[in-house]
Amino acid sequence: MDRNAPVTLLYDGQCVICQQSKRIIRALDWLKRTAFVDLHDREAANACCPSLDFAAALGQMHLVTPDGTLLGGFLAMRRVLKELPLGYPVWLLLHLPGMAWLGDRAYRWVARHRYRINRLLGVTICEGDTCHTPS
């Protein structure tokens, strides 16, 4: 396994919250440790992670580690923080007891309420079949 290989984040390129997360991560990724794949680019998504179900993947961001491990939701976001110089201290804090439980619930809440959050922000792009939260 190449320790310098980037992690790959799969995201919904038609979701405002996902797009903003990508912009923030890219801005903080001074060491170029993350790559991004828009799930709507089916060819790239299948090449990266052929076993990932498209409909389920739209409900949360996913991360593929250099060793091929697939993480979703809070675990994916927590793991990407490890790659960012300013994110590393947060990554450490998110390993404290109870943080995985709390973080998972917070991530799911945001994912479930994406449409409402986007409307509050004045954005309506995240509608229809995009930003779908799997049941």
Topology (SSEs and partners):
Layout: E1 7-11, H1 16-28, E2 34-38, H2 42-48, H3 54-57, E3 62-64, E4 70-72, H4 74-81, H5 88-93, H6 99-112, H7 114-120
Parallel strand pairs: 1-2
Antiparallel strand pairs: 1-3, 3-4
Would you give an account of this structure?
With 135 residues, the chain is of the alpha+beta class. The chain has one domain (7-120). The chain contains 7 helices and 4 strands, in the order E-H-E-H-H-E-E-H-H-H-H. The chain has helices at residues 16-28, 42-48, 54-57, 74-81, 88-93, 99-112, 114-120; strands at residues 7-11, 34-38, 62-64, 70-72. Strands 2-1-3-4 form a 4-stranded mixed β-sheet, sandwiched between helices. The chain starts with 6 loop residues before the first strand and ends in a 15-residue tail after the last helix. The mean pLDDT is 84.
